[in-house]
């Protein structure tokens, strides 16, 4: 029977392997990253990364588990916190726009990676609320709640 900490280590190792296989890194690059970022992997995690590393798996077959996709209710809470549910909101500095207060560079990058070239160059506050929701879900799938340091707790 696996201990709780062993299960957590296993999940982390598999998550790292999946993340890096999507980005086509080698196991040695993963290990270098772990040292450079100050997130050293345990020997068990290294073994799991190696065992679950499959660079031949096409990116199109990798799907985030449902738990990693925010629900409509969670997105509504995030939008309320970020913009008071205003899809046309613009921050005081003008750098962040829309329901989820995207920076234009972040928006463009997410749109490209999400296969939405039609949204590249569109100001987030000029995109439809449905498109803003889709880009927020895509960004969350990539980076979790990190892009929303204050309001991400609502996800």
Which key features would you list for this structure?
elongated, 6 helices, 155 residues
- Enumerate how many helices there are, as a single number: 6
Strand content: under 5%
Q: Point out poorly predicted stretches.
A: 57-67
Name the helicity range: 40-55%
The structural class is mainly alpha
Summarize the structure.
The longest helix is centred in the N-terminal third of the chain and has 19 residues, at 4-22.
Give the SSE map.
Elements: H1 4-22, H2 27-36, H3 43-52, H4 72-83, E1 96-97, E2 102-103, H5 104-113, H6 129-143
Antiparallel strand pairs: 1-2
Task: Please tell me about this protein's structure.
49% of the residues lie in helices and 3% in strands. The protein has 155 residues and is an all-alpha fold. Strands 1-2 form a two-stranded antiparallel sheet. The two termini are 32 Å apart.
């Amino acid at each position: 029977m696996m201990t709780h900490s062993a299960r957590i280590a296993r999940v982390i190792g598999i998550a790292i392997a999946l993340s890096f296989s999507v980005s086509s890194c080698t196991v040695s690059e993963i290990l270098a990253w772990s040292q450079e970022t100050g997130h050293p992997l345990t020997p068990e995690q290294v073994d799991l990364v190696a065992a679950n590393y499959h660079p031949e798996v096409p990116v199109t077959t990798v799907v985030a588990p449902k738990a990693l996709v925010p629900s409509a209710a969670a997105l509504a809470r995030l939008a309320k916190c970020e913009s008071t549910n205003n899809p046309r909101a613009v921050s005081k500095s003008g750098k962040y726009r829309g329901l989820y207060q995207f920076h234009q560079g972040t928006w463009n990058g997410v749109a490209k990676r999400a296969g939405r070239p039609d949204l590249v160059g569109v100001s987030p506050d000029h995109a439809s609320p449905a498109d803003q929701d889709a880009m927020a879900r895509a960004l969350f799938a990539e980076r979790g709640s990190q892009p929303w340091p204050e309001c991400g707790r609502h996800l």
